[in-house]
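#struct-queue
[09:14] JT: dropping the first one here, sequence first, then the structure tokens:
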Amino acid sequence: MGADLYIRSIHDKANAEHMPKFNTAAKVRDALIEAKVDQSEIDLAQEVVTKHYDAMYDHGGYFRDSYNSTSLFWQLGLSWWGDTASYINSNGKIVPSKAKLLLEWLKSRTLAVPTLDSLKGAKVSLDPNSEDSLQAWHEFFIAKKKRFEDFIQTAIDLNEPIDCSI
């Protein structure tokens, strides 16, 4: 579960382009599994499936914030249900004028370095040089916040609403 947000003109175009390729690649992979071929062939086919799946979502027209320890909103001490209510209209959209306000509000929020408590359920290392250190998690959230800000700015620049499923 999570908050899924879409800029339809970008997301729908990427889906139209990559969904057929994804479906074809998945059929090829499934046929290889059924034929019980060497695992290395299946792994290569899976890489193609993953490439097209990622292209359907990694294009600037989609943002997801899962309801788990990777949640940007939770790290900011916010709730998708409560704190965004004034930005999302009754049709589940954030219109450009509200997106501007949301972006200003989001930019005013600062991210503290996460704590062990705020990352419950996540792999965390107390070794400061680890890829799972609290500092590494902090950098992850800084980058995620920037991606979200860029996503909102794209919708504003395109003068398009953001479709929300929270």
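[09:21] JT: and here's the second one, same format:
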Amino acid sequence: MFAEDPFAGWDSPYLKMPPRNIVPKPLQKPHPPLWTACSRRETIKYAAQRGVGALSFAFLEPEFAARPVAEYYRTLTSQECVPAGFSVNPGFAVVIPMLCHADRQVALDRSLAGAQFFEFAKEHYYRPKRHYPGRTNLYRSFTRQYADKEQPIALGAIGAPDQLTALIQNYEQVGVDQLIFLTQAGLTRHQDICESLDLFARAVMPRFAEGREEKEKIKAERLGPAIEQALARRSPVRTASSDYCIDV
């Protein structure tokens, strides 16, 4: 629908749709970059096989991200990759909690409980749990179970600017392309989030902006031949029959 003009239709046991012109067409050509959400390594492999970005929600620490990233790019550049779209989006993104403050302890005090609640809520809906619509209060359950207990959790990017810089550098070294920061969770205050984003933009981001275009160019050149071969393995854009007519 993004790339065909008009969309040539679909006819399968599970989906039937006649030819139709889908408008507006996207600004990006042939279409926007495609991603798929991943929480398991099997899904990460699937993303690589389909030539789309892997968006991991597993709160992976850098040392645990290295192997999935390597497997993703190994599959993406192999004969297994047959793109789902008409372009390949080679990218590995990781979602992690973030709050930046000059004092690491203040950062933890302001946001650690919120990050823990997000993980608690995700597990509630992802795993088999009892849930009573309109009556189950997740935050109450969270505070009851976590009260006065030391709960193991990856801290993510919660800390001072230098600590966040070192953490991001570790992600960069193992091949993670993007970090998506979870800042609004639990009872984390809006004012604290805004202060965190401002400090991060001033003290951390500039360290990674320098040389970014050159790094992306090198990556594109390295993956270019494999991407070209992958696109040759998928069917081209179809052309709808010129005599198809909607006659009402």
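[09:30] RK: nice, looked through the second one.
[09:31] RK: The chain has a mean pLDDT of 92.
[09:31] JT: good to know. The longest strand covers residues 92-100.
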